[in-house]
């Protein structure tokens, strides 16, 4: 009986926010609370500038339309103190918090809600300082800084240092590192998350926690367990890595028949994961690749080598001559120039353009992901490439693993796709505004292609990468009453296992324990966030807050 009462109390608490959300006003108490705390950059629904504040950072136009749920307000904190106030005020007003750093969430989770709960967007765009300490090869990065801003600041401080993270400069370090963060240096230096040595988190109580304050389980969880689930990351302290004065880069497009393209991809599958750690060659396959200029199905190889061009050519001559060496034109450049080269910025862009937060070429897209543990047989690949040739809006990106990715233990961070994975697979379909009437058709096409690929990829469970978020894998339903009558003690945790174990494999239960420690009331939640245990099976530790002065003023943050 006592247990039942306790159980019900926990339930009440878990769902209190959802209930209160339904009854809440349109944000008046929230804005009053913010005003009292001195937070000035607040735009409420209906006020001038609301549309721009909400939409400018939206990357996937699929979630920018009139039908998307809209926040009561968009708040842009100007300091750590204001970030704390935003979290505290939103909670007091029973508004769900949507943290946004770069706005690149594939499923729009930084500015929409899954269940039409009243919510507020807390946008970290103004928290974008990067402080590099060349001596220790570290940097403090405010979570609102984009990867382009980070790369720019690192290279400006020292051309001999780099940061290992993704290639798109407008991606935010807040969401990116929270999901792992794979890029051109990852075969040499691991994920962005592998290179985080400290962090500052604002938790659901508004406390400011550094690594020792939050404890090792939570520090583990925030480096790959997915954004928006643990608290607001205010800043990351990252380890920088040495790079040579010159690196080598090339992009080459190889059109052909489905069979000839498949043969090249097959060779790539047998070679790229085993190249030296300094080498990275990814493969893009599709019938509408920009480099192919309308010539039909093709593969584009993007190559990067931490060393001179003649060395890169020597390695390719021995290992991958099929790529075609005579017109490869590998170019030597500084690391930061290679970042611009692979950034997707328009031809002629310069290093300073990396600091532009706004992505100018946006579109509508849907993505899904997989991992490959062995190469496909050639006839299977031919069939896959043949299917791709039928839908020029779709393409596949193969990212080479191996190297350092193969040597890091799968339990080191929540991101588990390490040893034994030869490459990642990302399936994408993109369309423009005037084609949006065919949205369902495009998305269904991608799902059918994904079904076809199921036989050839990692299974049991079929794996996925949380930064390529895919709501097809399942979503939380915080207001599912049927779960309340259920005899299972933790129905949310069991439901979320369906996608949680695909993103995190054996790390899922440790993430649930970390969530229960840091956010037992589930204040930070979204469609695929890790749920807390209702009846904690672990002793809840009480994280120790540190005074914000130490961070903004002392040696910790102000290096
Ligand atoms: C064009 C493009 C290129 C990409 N390239 C790569 C790549 O090369 N490698 C790779 O690994 N991934 C890549 N991604 C995926 C990218 O890493 C994820 O979409 C990432 O989550 C985006 O982070 P963000 O801050 O820009 O997004 P947001 O939409 O702002 O946030 C994503 C999630 O994190 C949460 N979040 C945001 N800020 C914080 C914070 N400060 N504290 C806590 N939670 C927060 C949000 O609430 C949301 O749930 C790419 C995405 C796009 C659109
Ligand atoms: C609010 O923040 C946004 C994003 O940083 C900025 O563009 C805008 O100028 C700010 N508005 C005010 C009034 O400070
Ligand atoms: C692309 O194709 C068009 C004709 O279809 C041609 O005029 C143009 O020169 C091509 N561009 C490049 C870069 O090859
Ligand atoms: C969530 O659960 C409720 C109650 O069972 C149900 O009515 C609703 O349709 C569910 N929502 C979603 C998105 O599945
Ligand atoms: C913060 O800076 C002020 C002025 O520089 C100094 O007096 C104070 O001791 C510092 N506080 C901490 C915690 O370092």
UniProtKB/TrEMBL annotation:
Keyword presence, Oxidoreductase: yes
Annotated PROSITE patterns: FAD_PCMH, OX2_COVAL_FAD
Superkingdom of this protein's organism: Eukaryota
Signal peptide: 1-20
Biased amino acid composition, Polar residues: 539-559
InterPro entries cross-referenced by the UniProt entry: BBE, FAD-bd_PCMH, FAD-bd_PCMH-like_sf, FAD-bd_PCMH_sub1, FAD-bd_PCMH_sub2, Oxid_FAD_bind_N, Oxy_OxRdtase_FAD_BS
Pfam family, one: BBE
UniProt keyword Flavoprotein present: yes
Location of the region described as Disordered in the Swiss-Prot/TrEMBL record: 534-559
Residue ranges occupied by any FAD-binding PCMH-type domain in the UniProt entry: 67-243
Molecular function per GO: FAD binding; oxidoreductase activity
Cofactor(s) listed: FAD
Keywords noted in UniProt: FAD, Flavoprotein, Glycoprotein, Oxidoreductase, Signal
Family: Belongs to the oxygen-dependent FAD-linked oxidoreductase family.
Name recorded for this polypeptide: FAD-binding PCMH-type domain-containing protein
């Amino acid at each position: 009986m006592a247990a039942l009462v306790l159980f019900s109390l926990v339930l009440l608490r878990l769902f209190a926010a959802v209930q209160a959300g339904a009854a809440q006003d349109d944000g008046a108490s929230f804005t009053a609370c913010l005003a009292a705390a001195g937070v000035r950059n607040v735009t409420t629904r209906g006020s001038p500038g609301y549309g721009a504040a909400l939409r400018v950072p939206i990357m996937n136009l699929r979630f920018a339309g009139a039908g998307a749920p809209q926040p009561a307000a968009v708040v842009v904190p100007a300091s750590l103190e204001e970030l704390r106030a935003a979290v505290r005020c939103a909670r007091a007003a029973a508004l769900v918090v949507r943290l946004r750093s770069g706005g690149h969430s594939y499923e729009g989770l930084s500015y929409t809600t899954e269940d039409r709960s009243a919510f507020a967007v807390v946008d970290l765009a103004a928290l974008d300082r990067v402080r590099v300490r060349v001596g220790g090869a570290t940097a403090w990065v405010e979570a609102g800084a984009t990867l382009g801003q980070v790369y720019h600041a690192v290279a400006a401080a020292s051309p001999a240092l780099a940061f290992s993270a993704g290639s798109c400069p407008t991606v935010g370090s807040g969401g990116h590192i929270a999901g792992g963060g794979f890029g051109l240096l990852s075969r040499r230096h691991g994920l962005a998350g592998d290179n985080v040595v400290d962090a500052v988190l604002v938790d659901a109580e508004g406390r400011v926690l550094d690594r020792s304050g939050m404890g090792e389980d939570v520090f583990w969880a925030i480096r790959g367990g997915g954004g928006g689930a643990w608290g607001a990351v205010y800043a990351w302290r990252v380890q920088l890595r040495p790079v040579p004065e010159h690196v080598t880069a090339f992009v080459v497009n190889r059109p052909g028949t489905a069979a000839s393209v498949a043969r090249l991809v097959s060779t790539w599958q047998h070679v790229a994961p085993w190249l030296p750690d300094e080498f990275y060659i990814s493969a893009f396959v599709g019938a509408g690749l920009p480099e192919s200029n309308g010539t039909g199905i093709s593969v584009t190889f993007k190559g990067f080598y931490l060393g001179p061009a003649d060395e890169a050519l020597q390695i390719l001559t021995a290992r991958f001559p099929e790529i075609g060496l005579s017109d490869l034109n590998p170019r030597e450049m500084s690391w930061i120039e290679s970042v611009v080269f692979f950034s997707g910025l328009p031809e002629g862009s310069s290093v300073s353009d990396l600091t532009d937060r706004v992505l100018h070429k946006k579109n509508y897209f849907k993505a899904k992901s997989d991992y490959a543990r062995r190469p496909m047989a050639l006839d299977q690949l031919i069939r896959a490439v043949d299917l791709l040739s039928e839908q020029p809006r779709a393409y596949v990106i193969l990212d080479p693993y191996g190297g350092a990715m193969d040597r890091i233990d799968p339990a080191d961070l929540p991101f588990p796709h390490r040893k034994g994975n030869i490459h990642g697979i990302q399936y994408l379909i993109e369309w423009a505004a005037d084609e949006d009437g065919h949205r369902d058709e495009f998305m269904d096409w991608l799902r059918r292609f994904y079904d076809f690929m199921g036989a050839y990829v990692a299974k049991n469970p079929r794996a996925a990468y949380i930064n390529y978020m895919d709501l097809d894998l399942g979503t939380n339903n915080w207001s599912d009453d049927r779960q309340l009558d259920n005899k299972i003690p933790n129905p949310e945790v069991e439901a979320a296992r369906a996608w949680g174990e695909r993103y995190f494999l054996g790390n899922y239960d440790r993430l649930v324990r970390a969530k229960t420690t840091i956010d037992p009331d589930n204040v930070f939640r979204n469609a695929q966030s890790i749920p807390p245990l209702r009846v904690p099976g672990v002793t809840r530790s009480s994280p120790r807050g540190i005074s914000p002065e130490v961070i903004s003023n002392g040696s910790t943050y102000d290096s």
